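Exercise: predict the fold of this chain.
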Amino acid sequence: MTKHTKKAIINTTIFDGRKILGLGTVVFENGRIIEICKQQPKDAEITDGTGTTLMPGLIDAHVHTSVQFLRDALKFGITTELEMMGGFTKKGRNAQLIGINDIADVRSAGMGLTAPGGHPDELIPKGDGIPDFVLKEMETMSEEERTAFFAAHEAQKLAEETGPDVTTAAGAITFVREQVENGADYIKIMIEEGTVMNAPGLPMIDEAVLKVAVDEAHKLGKIAIAHVLTAEAAKTAVNIGVDGLAHLFIDRPTWTGKLINSIVEKGIFVTPCLVLNSSIIGNPACELAHDKRVAPKLNEDWKMTMCSCFNTFPAGNMQDNFDNVKELFDAGVDILVGTDVSVPMPHLGGLAHGVSVHHEMQLLVEAGLKPIDALKSATSVTARRFGLSDRGIIEAGMRADLILVKGDPTTNISDSLNIVGVWKEGESCHTSSIKANNNSI
């Protein structure tokens, strides 16, 4: 099948990203959905979806990614990744991704605003040059991809060496402007003193300077998202006027209710990344890594990573996290599905591109959300909060980013992993079990 041929998925239960439409047909052509109907079209390539549910392509609202990781994500029906620190701004996409189609779409914050030596410096292997895990990944790249990557790496290194003093108001404003000039889709700031990461005393930027950065982002038409892992950091984020929290606070002080009320009042969204918090507390995801629906899609490095964990804050407990996210949801806060997945290394364990989105939805359900609400959080809710007006919903005119699964994940969230078909902009990839009829009828 090609992107330009009219295609139809018939006899499938349609979850459109907001509600269940029931049994029907979705027709798409030239990368866009053109019709949702009951009948079988006579001029399309047909995929029979009997016994399946069709959903919008899933969105991971918090990643750190690469070309190969974007490929990995697509295998699990994640058709868009939102990078929260990295090189895939518009400028970066134009330099590194033009002509590469077998990957998830990506948006990026560019580089995050953090103090020199601040988070995530404590997580990055020290040494000169490009880290070993990056060099290993580069072995899978084409010559053209390697050339583009080297150019991006050198540009980033130069920017870090010659960049402004971000601990000052003037420097923070310059930094935000530079990210926007590079084509950042939103702005990311760090509020992390390090205790939860087992690195207490990390350098931080003063709250007044952070507020200046957020204000500048808003002046330039960009939303601002804050890295926070504690309630105290979340309170700071609310005070400086961010639009979203890139994490859920892992603790639960006596004033949590007041914090939640302030998040509600300001209309701030929260991307809990429960999969990350679980890993930080000390829980690996080895059982999921060896699930028969998952294992064939992961290489050994990623299986090893999922079977490890951060384990930097074993004093935490998941029930606090579940209570926090459920209270936020019940109060009307928009909850987004994100993972904070990055690279395959044991100390960043419990996570893998693609599969961790499904794990996150399972944890949201364990926290008390209904399966359909977890699915909304991975589709329409994230698309709306990030201004991705062409995706996240199955509707005429939208991108034909679709995932077809056996069963009904709107009632049993684990069924989201029963993937039999993925389409990105109408192009079929990673299909199994269900095959298209290439004869027009």
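Check your answer against the key: The chain has two domains: 1-56+391-441, 58-127+165-389.
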